[in-house]
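Troubleshooting: if your tokenizer reports a length mismatch, compare your output against this known-good record of 256 residues.
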Amino acid sequence: MQLKFYKYQGTGNDFVMIDDRENRHHLSAQQIQQLCNRRFGIGADGVILIRNHEKMDFEMVYYNSDGSQSFCGNGSRCALAFAEFLGIYEHQANFVAIDGEHTGKSENQLYYTKMGDVSDVEIGKDYMFINTGSPHYIIWKEDLSALNIINEAHSIRYNERFKAKGTNVNFVKELPEGVQVRTYERGVEDETLSCGTGVTAVTLAQAVKHNWKDSVLKIKVEGGELNVSFEREGNFFKNIWLIGPAEFVFEGTINL
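Known-good structure output:
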């Protein structure tokens, strides 16, 4: 099978995008892994198919590089950029993903995804755990440059609590203006240059830690910079927006 694809990236989180509005492509986990392989395939953190939806502007079907499914924040912003390129919407769109319905928009070359409301924040002795469409474990560190992220993340991701379904692990350093974040992603099973659901979870954790009622937090990731805005009532968060760039890289065809 010859497959037409487009490559997009959002702050270094990169995706193989497929126009599947005719619902012709039903990819196996092995095919997803082949597409995402950086030596023998296209290379990506995940694969996204854009499909028609009877009630929404489009459906985003997302696969991690190992073939598993979840919601991806940066992937959703790249999906918005790709759907805009395909002429599916102008300025604002309603779409559905594995975790439910979302609103998105494009403004001044930035792409905005409205994330789902969050009502459950687990506060531990030295961590927080928050699900923002994908589960995220959050730890604060003084120095991220010296961090052995794989070893430290594996001790959490594969412990007794998380080894069955997995969790993403975020390491956070507070800065004079905003925060710096490094994220280990389940499904990719490695550090990624950026994670949208991760920086969203970190923002909400910062709000709990510092008792913010609403804010726009600037987040520095390995692949650039993102912003997250929110409103808070107790530990209930709403109107959560993930904001950042999403860019076309290249297009091509590949035999599967």
